[in-house]
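To fix ideas, we reproduce below one chain and its tokenised fold.
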Amino acid sequence: MQSGRTNISSEQLFNAKGKCVTSAKELLTSAKPDKAKFFARQLVPLVMQKNDQDKEDGSGTAIVTRDKTKLKKASLYRVLLLNDDFTPMHFVIHVLQRFFAMNEEQATQITLHVHNKGVGECGVFTYEVAETKVTKVMNFARDSQHPLQCIMERK
């Protein structure tokens, strides 16, 4: 027996009404419409394996397979602002408030951290969100004629 597959006889397959079924088609057609999707996901592909003897007496063996999907946690990325000597602090505060939904106190603390340490973390996001925020900040800084740099790095 392979992992992920279970051998069961056709007598062990029952529809929602408790009636024994022998094929996936019979199972799906006898189910209520809202249950048919459930059965399709859980029991299909249902493969009937019959040999010559099975054809004569009507018994058979079914193999029910179910793919086990493992969810992987999304990778997180830090969005960082880099210090420069030309971008005014009030512009950095405005960027943090506008693009990272920070209040004035939080934005000021991060701005001072960027000024003193050279780099500051604006937030941690999934890849797509982080990439979008970096792009928006960079475009806004360029349109405002400031050399502010915003980058992302894997956490």
In short: The CA atoms of residues 16 and 35 lie 8 Å apart. The radius of gyration is 30 Å. The first strand starts at residue 5 and ends at 9.
